[in-house]
């Protein structure tokens, strides 16, 4: 059980999360609301802290889509950000517009296969910038796929 100073509720499109200050870890944390059990009676009063980010929805999206994973990927998608955002839920990745035709996808996974398959299935041309392990893994997959058909 954690003691938290709640700050704000934020919705990702699928779930509600509480952003709060974890007094034990002395850091900001995100908590799925469906897993939170309030303390009764309520805990001690506290002075509200400065939020960890101005855009808490973006902060939450980064926290649940990239930060907790072994591999954190940065991928250019050759698609406008608004189109890519229709296919990438905020719990899966953060879309950052580059210009009117391309955007960056920040996403993560514990599996290189999962990252490779996910980005391919989005249906856009893309370029992987990092991590280097993903670049090498996709090269290996491409060679195996080429061998399978040729």
From TrEMBL:
Pfam family, one: WYL
Entry-linked InterPro entries: CBASS_pafABC_assoc_protein, WCX_dom, WYL_dom
Domain WCX as annotated: residue spans: 70-145
Domain WYL: 2-38
Transmembrane segments: none
Superkingdom, taxonomy of origin: Bacteria
Protein name as annotated: WYL domain-containing protein
């Amino acid at each position: 059980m954690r003691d938290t100073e709640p700050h704000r509720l934020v919705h990702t499109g699928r779930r509600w999360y509480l952003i709060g200050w974890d007094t034990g870890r002395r850091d900001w944390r995100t908590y799925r609301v469906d897993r939170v059990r309030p303390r009764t009676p309520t805990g001690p009063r506290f002075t509200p802290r400065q939020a960890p980010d101005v855009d808490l929805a973006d902060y939450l999206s980064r926290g649940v889509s990239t930060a907790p994973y072994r591999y954190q990927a940065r991928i250019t998608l050759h698609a406008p950000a608004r189109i890519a955002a229709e296919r990438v839920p905020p719990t899966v990745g953060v879309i950052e517009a580059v210009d009117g035709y391309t955007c960056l996808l920040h996403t993560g996974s514990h599996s290189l296969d999962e990252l490779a398959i996910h980005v391919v299935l989005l249906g856009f041309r893309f370029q992987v910038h990092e991590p280097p392990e993903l670049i090498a893994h996709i090269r290996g997959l491409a060679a195996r796929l080429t061998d399978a058909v040729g």
